[in-house]
Design goal:
methyltransferase; S-adenosyl-L-methionine; S-adenosyl-L-methionine-dependent methyltransferase; binds S-adenosylmethionine
């Protein structure tokens, strides 16, 4: 968990710059990422293990299930979903996050191939719409894993929330005001 001084610094940063992709990018550029655990979310792994319906793989029509991770950061959760058989898309507004995700996918290339899933990283603001085409979003996602960007929902999307992640970190929400 992030220290109190780190949380204070985050709070000050967002109070000054607003909660925008640019403000997040500035944190990446300062290499100030107190949220970074360099591993995947235990809640996601638990959910995938304990709910067979959340597994990826092929749909009944033979096409592959798709997953989205908004605000994916370094991309560990995207890799977990790709490994579970999804065509997984990680979305982040920071160039450095996308670079980290692409690098991580490269490192996991061999194991990903085994389940047929894939990992793709797209740089964009989740609340804009330009990225929807790049991420093939308009046909929908079978699973969206988010405990970062949007407790905030997108008004133009209909999201059916089936799983409420068990480890929502309200500390970051409190930094965002
Ligand atoms: C607190 S970090 C969490 C990263 C990752 N989910 C993790 O657990 O390590 C939030 C991430 O969301 C990204 N982000 C914040 N707002 C965003 C937005 N509107 N669109 C896309 N990405 C955003 C930031 O750049 C940052 O990488």
């Amino acid at each position: 968990m992030a220290s109190q001084p780190a949380l204070q610094r985050l709070k000050g940063h967002f109070a000054e710059s607003g909660n925008t992709p640019e403000a997040w990018s500035a944190l990446w550029e300062q290499d100030f990422k107190p949220w970074e655990r360099s591993t995947s979310s235990p809640a996601l792994i638990d959910a995938l293990k304990s709910h067979a319906t959340l597994q990826g793989g092929l749909r009944t029509n033979g096409t592959r299930k798709k997953a989205l991770v908004p605000g994916c950061g370094t991309g560990h959760d995207v890799i977990v979903l790709a490994d579970a058989g999804y065509d997984a898309v990680g979305l982040d507004g920071a160039d450095l996050a996308i670079e980290a995700g692409v690098k991580l996918a490269e490192e996991h290339k061999q194991e990903l191939g085994k389940n047929g899933g894939s990992a793709k990283f797209v740089k964009a603001d989740f609340f804009a719409s330009e990225w929807e085409k790049d991420a093939d979003a308009l046909s929908g996602f079978d699973l969206i894993y988010d405990y970062t960007v949007s407790q905030l929902t997108r008004s133009s999307w209909f999201m059916l929330i089936l799983v409420v992640p068990v480890c929502f970190e309200s500390i970051y929400a409190s930094c965002l005001g």
